[in-house]
Design brief:
The protein is an alpha/beta fold. About 35% of the residues lie in helices and about 15% in strands. It has one domain.
Length: about 250
């Protein structure tokens, strides 16, 4: 996952084949929602007080790539700002909700690859594999697009076996956030909140892993995400101390 940059528009979004047709009313709403979402993130993001913590065995820097990153849908807003401008390929649902998320993150310098566990899954994974071969990090909101909340799906592990690249995980905890009453309990950071990103140890899936092995690595991915989520939520109030020093976040 590369480090944040201020050049969101420098990396053009690639065309994708998973787009749906929307009504005129939906298209108007999408333009409004995506514009409001983008400007909210751009205005709130610079006020966040950010620290990053790495587990033993994690990558050495947020600049390391290519990797296969996984995180929970609830922290997509702070994550979109922190990892902006680096051309990270993110799998997004081909649904209406997925469309406005895709439009927002593309404005922030990500590239949306349409697909989910139920629609366009094979084409999405092929698109992510090409991105890895080209040297880009790819990312999954693993419990999206509709849950179940904080439950891992097998896509990253299968992609790790096929590509030979390591899996990484992270969670961005926010100490002061508006939390939506939605399936994912989406966090909307309040201005000047503390944010702690905890990065998990790398997981490598052998090319000859059996289906039984894949189940074991999927369980390891679940345990790692659970662990980094618990750590960051427990320690976010300590951001700004000697143990969790502030990082530049502009």
């Amino acid at each position: 996952m590369p480090e944040a940059s201020t050049h969101e528009a420098a990396i053009p979004a690639e065309p994708d084949s998973g787009r749906r047709r929307f009504t005129l009313g939906q298209r108007i709403a999408l333009r409004i929602i995506s514009a409001l979402g983008y400007w909210f993130i751009r205005l709130i993001g610079p006020t966040l007080r950010l620290s990053v913590s790495f587990e033993d065995g994690a990558q050495q820097s947020l600049q390391d790539r290519p990797l296969i990153a996984s995180f929970w849908h609830s922290c997509i807003i702070p994550s979109a700002y922190i990892f902006r401008g680096q051309g990270i390929r993110v799998i997004t649902s081909a649904s209406y909700d997925g469309e406005y998320i895709a439009r927002i993150i593309q404005k922030l310098g990500f590239v949306a690859v349409r697909g989910s566990s139920s629609r366009n899954a094979v084409s999405a994974l092929l698109g992510l594999r090409r991105a890895l071969d080209e040297g880009w990090t790819v990312a999954f909101t693993l419990d999206g697009p509709r849950g179940p909340r904080q439950k891992v799906k097998p896509g990253p592990v299968a992609l790790g076996r096929a590509s030979g690249l390591a899996l990484t995980t992270f969670h961005a905890a926010v100490d002061k956030a508006w939390m939506l009453n939605s399936w994912d309990r989406l966090m909307i950071p309040q201005p000047f909140s503390r944010v702690l990103v905890r990065v998990g140890k790398l997981i490598r899936v052998p090319a000859d892993a059996s289906e039984e092995d894949l189940e074991r690595y999927t369980a390891e991915l679940q345990a790692t995400l659970d662990r980094v989520c618990e750590f960051s939520e427990a320690n976010v109030s300590r951001v700004g101390t000697d143990e969790f020093p502030l990082r530049k976040n502009s």
